[in-house]
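Batch job 17 of 40 flagged for manual review because the log was empty.
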Amino acid sequence: MDMTISPEAAGWFKKELNLQAGDSIRLFPRYSSGGGLHPGFSLGIATEPPARPAVETVQGGLVFYMEEQDLWYMEGYSLSIVYIAGEDDIEYVYQPLSVAGQAE
């Protein structure tokens, strides 16, 4: 699983969550009425330090990560988080991985 965060998206997280360089953002599946990749689940966020990160990337001084037990949600996909200027919001973009593990 690959995870990329655009610089603008990292800036959005800093602004919206009042974060500083060195802070961490955990991405995790949460039960919801909406849906992302899996019906009944969506991607949640929490500002907490990693315990057992399986995927981690740094953008804009922030550490974005997913814990080992949460990787099932992204199995077969890569994740990009991008900023949508016209909406002043972020978007999660899921890209299917090929057999070799690279985004198609």
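Reviewer: the log was empty due to a logging misconfiguration, but the result itself is present. The chain has a mean pLDDT of 90. Unflagging and moving on to job 18.
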